[in-house]
Design goal:
11 helices, homotetramer, elongated, 0% strand, mainly alpha, DNA-binding
DNA sequence: GATGAATGAGGGTTCATTCAT
DNA sequence: GATGAATGAACCCTCATTCAT
């Protein structure tokens, strides 16, 4: 079997499954075990399929979907070119499956967030940390979503737009809730939602993902502070 | 001449020259006239070259650089395939030229900003409006820069990274200055710089560029407010 | 399957394998059988590859390497354009492989020559016949080597120069040996080596390869005589 | 005007005209003056034409006719692409003109050779020196003739074959004459003619043209010796 | 007489996809 | 279930040639 040339520089566990956060970020249990358990039950066929998906995830995120070759993917896995097409109708299908399973996992996260988020908590901090963790734990998918945002293929585009809209609506909803509770000032929640998410995304991809020696906790705190207070020298509004 | 299939959905003037803001955003004169005047003086060769560049700008922004075909570009212009290669060494050269002329224009903008920005003004508002205007006037280049951020080609990648770093450094510098002047609270200016720029970029591309009936001024004001005050219900810090 | 346009005018067996003389010229057995036997064992893939190489050999020798199109080659074989690139990295690789296998075969010949050449024999006759046979059995490769001697590609050039230098050194070495044994007069062996090889090459390509009704044995004897005695009317030096 | 990249390493005077030996090699007068005189009379148009031909000669000899670009040639001269086609119907016409003027010049040489060659002289030496000088003084055309011997274009091929046949017939004729005079032993003059010319050509191109510090006179003497005596240790037949 | 912008046919090469095994 | 040889459409790019100026 040929050796892979791809460098694994992210903290991903390099498994399509694990790249998808089935568990909530607030869960402290090790979800890996569950996945591992499930993995054990995978048939040989399912294993191959999963390996291909894992490899596709990495290759797509590194070379971009269009430039990524099926040959790159199968070389990574060590299977034949045709095997890819036994498991997936075409290249696009694999990408769509990756994206969809990511979104499915997200929906599970939402339930947890909604249920566990304490309204008295520092919502900005919680939200930022959740989104940041989400992106950090799914570096590859994050990259793909970022890079393919304007992919010429309409289906892919739509799917990714869905993800962004989802985040925006989450933020908007949280802000509206905060306003009703009196912990958020009056504002255009739609615009603010986009702004907050964009802020977090940029920081995750520019600082947390790219810079090696970065204090993640420090970065997240700074963002939360920015979200809460803005840049002006006022007393901490929480005080 | 063959008919173009590309849809011109953006508000760009669809001219490589006009896409590049040679004049400062603070200038209220209509620079278009000047550019038009210059255009009159273009030789036939230069006209062809410009037309190709204009078409390349659109095609690159719509299909992505790698998926964009030279044949798409020349079909748009109505010239032969070879004509592209008479004017540009290769596809990449055209992209690099577009990016570089954009960056050159930016540098001119900077000088104006530095010279004209009143420290007593609402810096966040001025900065946001400047960046937003810059991006809005160069929708296509903005799209390209956004889409090719992780292009596999190292040269392209570097060029675009340069652009982002430039914006980040601008924001960081403005924040540091504000801190020294006492109009900005103490913070990690590097992180905040990335956050502020990311916020603006997201809003421009998600709201201003994509949504038709958007009150640009309203959006920019909201962002400035967010930057100044954050989301918390404090009294306006400027008061 | 499309019809070939290439005319097979040479006496080549038109097989990349048979073009390469695996057996020594002094062997009287028919090596073709052995090669045929081996051919039987070739997998379908190897057969395709061999067919492409055979066709490339002919096309390269007829049109010249640079003018030869991959499409010519695959049309000859009856496979798709892509099939060529499945088997060979590029056009050059196929050429280099042809040249290298020829040179490898040569090295085997050398061992035989060195081992079997009787110093008491008419060395000039043996050498001439060996080189002439080598070239005659590999007409196409001979043509290629002749035509691409000054190919702009440095790698190709070097490879072919190697072949010529090899022949020159062989001749030089033989002459030096003859001088030590007293059967060759004192001379500048380096110059003489080039002269002898050039003489043989010219005759092979001008007379043996091109003229149909030529008595090969007669030609070779005439050359040997020339090499031994020159043109002057002296008594046969061997007498 | 762009600078040329071509290295002028040969001893050519780098003039299409001077590359063609209008004067016999045995003439000791400086024919350059005559040519120069003629040059003076060239109209500007004729000068341009000549310059293009000169450049074509060099480019063809260095890159090979097929790989040579018209753009290379005109860049060398410093004229526009179209200028080439004003003076020559196409690329091939320029090559054919170069070859033809070379052959015309040859015919003039022949008359001189035939008239001046002393039958009592060392004919081999005279013939070798004449051919060698001819090739050395026309390095570029020599290269072209050597490289394009098997050019796929039939017209070019034929023209070059003509040159070789001419040389062969010259040698054959000289040998037949020598035989009649009793200064050459009985032999197959046709084969010997090819052999003698091939010997000289190889040595010129392998040793004299390529190796820098080569004693041309020594090389020519060695060849003559080889032609006269062969390789065997006989007493000098001339004694 | 010369120009040089423009042409377009054609070449090498890539790669997603198919299908017989 | 997996293979991998084969495919062929499509792309980037080259360059001899044309023609309006």
């Amino acid at each position: 079997m040929k050796q892979s040339n791809l460098k694994n520089t992210s903290q991903d566990t390099f498994s399509a499954s694990s790249d998808i956060p089935i568990s909530s970020v607030s869960m402290n249990k090790t979800p890996m075990n569950e996945i591992a358990d499930i993995s054990e039950k995978l048939s040989k066929k399912e294993m191959t399929r999963k390996k291909i998906l894992d490899a596709a995830l990495i290759v797509f995120s590194q070379k971009g979907y269009d430039k990524a070759n099926v040959s790159d993917i199968v070389r990574e896995v060590g299977v034949a070119q045709g095997t890819f097409y036994y498991h997936f109708k075409d290249k696009k299908t694999a990408l769509v499956e990756l994206l969809n399973s990511f979104f499915d996992a997200m929906k599970k996260l939402v339930a947890n967030w909604a249920a566990t988020t304490d309204t008295s908590a520092d919502m900005a901090l919680v939200f930022s940390r959740n989104v940041a963790d989400l992106l950090r734990k799914n570096t590859c998918l994050g990259q793909i979503i970022r890079n393919e945002t304007n992919n010429p293929d309409p289906e892919i585009r739509l799917l990714i737009k869905e993800f962004h809209n989802y985040l925006y609506r989450q933020a908007e909803f949280a802000l509206l809730l905060g306003m009703r509770l009196g912990v958020v000032r009056e504002m255009d929640a739609r615009i603010a939602g986009v702004a907050l998410v964009g802020m977090i995304e940029s920081v995750v991809f520019e600082l947390i993902d790219r810079v090696e020696d970065v204090d993640v906790e420090h970065v997240i705190k700074e963002i939360s502070e920015m979200q809460n207070r803005g840049i002006r020298p006022t007393p901490d509004p929480r005080s």
